[in-house]
Amino acid sequence: MADPDAQSNKNTCKTLLLKFGGTSVGSPEAMRQAAAIIQEERPKWERIIAVVSAMNGVTNTLIACAQAALDSKNAEYQEHIAQLRQRHFEAIHALVPQELQEGLCAVIDQQLGTLKAFCDSIQVMGEVTPRGMDTISSLGERMNAKIFSACLQQIGLRSQAVDAAGLIVTDDNFQNAHPLLEQTCRQVSAKLLPLLEQGVIPVVTGFIGATEDGITTTLGRGGSDYSASLLADCLDATEVWNCTDVDGVMTADPNIVPDARVIPELTYDEMSEMAYFGAKVLHPKTIQPIVTKNIPLRVMNTFNPSHPGTRISSQSSALRGKLTSVSGIKNLSIFTIEGRGMLGVPGVAARTFGAVAEVGASVLMISQSSSEQSICFVVPAEVEEKVQAALLRNLGGEIERGDINGIQIHSDVVIITVIGSGMRQTPGVSARVFNALGSRMINVIAIAQGSSEYSISLVVDSQDAKLAIQQLHQEVIINGNKPTQN
Ligand code: ASP
Ligand code: MG
């Protein structure tokens, strides 16, 4: 069934992978919308695969069940389980043909039976392992894939629910498992391809996988996006559509910047940078599996499917000097280590970051002056005290000798990042950024730019963060991108 128009470097079958997030499959009305998108696309593609999340909020409720069991709050987890049962039963009754309802309700009861058994034993043992947590939190996707697949059947499409525990093979790093690509692709070829060849639409559970021994794992919270790109990679998909409840990736957080707008096109690099800097649209690892094969990813709104959304690919339509977005990460602390004695002394940076690593803190930004007389770095506020103690332990000698004058901490800062591959090799971009802030008397505490030139990050006091983001959005993104400028 080769398509003569298909690009030759790809699988010759036109393959669309649609991922539906929790809100898109969180109620009967939403599921109908999601199903309508698939129905509309069915004739246009040779192969269609859907990946679904749990209904919105369900994963949180499952985790709350385990927590209640740990706290010996038996009535509380029973109550949660009853609510989960009701919500899924309601969806089944609203969406599924009568003859399938009973069977499907039995499946839900079986999954919730597993949940109850786990909670009972957590309560008795007084503990829960990460492995147990993964089995518990996988249940939302497992229930929902069955329901959504039945919903597709109801509108006349051929579909089958597929448990990703038989597809996505991972290591045993429970709760944040790392997928093993080769083994995964082998499973995908063996189990998904035969369905696709028969014209069946598989509805695969997002978020979950299993070890080589078949023990359920999860890919980390929000991991369904990542599941979708992993499958897209194995299937050589033509496109991935990430169907969510917003029109696309925005130029800024609309809660901070009311006139933030949807970005029509982004490069993979820009998107990776945004995911890292708290854009919260996609799981940070989503881009990685689709880059090599250059599979475009569209972020779109299930409830407004005619809006084109944001297209993420290797190509950028961004013009030189144009920037795409501004975002911020809150609740951080910045450390500055200063001292004339640091000049040319090897090992100070190594020991500084060794100390930070010792306490398991991740560093979000680093900058060092070329005079080598100061190093500063940013960590989450919650690890501030631990980091301080570790630094005093590790650099005690230098501090005593006076080679290091001291460790300064500025608590409650925000990292603001301006992103856009248009800044590459284009002079004047940082000048615009700093002018925008300077004109409003906003003090910049530290600056970093990676040599990849996709982003500039700056640290400001949290009191200045909102104005700084608004100002940068207005001056650098909106005004800076006006076509009259060059
Ligand atoms: N249901 C999972 C979560 O809430 C995965 C996802 O929705 O992507 O984290
Ligand atoms: Mg998500």
Q: Keywords for this structure?
A:
486 residues; alpha/beta; Carbamate kinase; VC0802-like; 16 helices; 16 strands; 20% strand; binds aspartic acid; binds magnesium ion
Structure description:
The strands form 3 sheets. This protein has an 8-stranded mixed sheet with strand order 3-4-2-1-7-9-10-8, sandwiched between helices. The chain has a 6-stranded antiparallel sheet with strand order 12-13-11-14-16-15. A two-stranded antiparallel sheet has the order 5-6. The radius of gyration is 25 Å and the shape is globular. A hairpin with an 8-residue loop joins strand 9 and strand 10. Helix content is 41%, strand content 20%. The N terminus is likely disordered. The protein folds into 2 domains: 303 residues, Acetylglutamate kinase-like (Carbamate kinase, 3-Layer(aba) Sandwich), CATH 3.40.1160; 154 residues, 2-Layer Sandwich (VC0802-like), CATH 3.30.2130.10. Helix 2 runs antiparallel to helix 3, helix 7 packs across helix 9 and helix 12 crosses helix 13. It has 486 residues and is α/β, with parallel strands linked by helices. It contains 16 helices and 16 strands. The structure holds aspartic acid and magnesium ion. The site of aspartic acid has 12 residues, from loops.
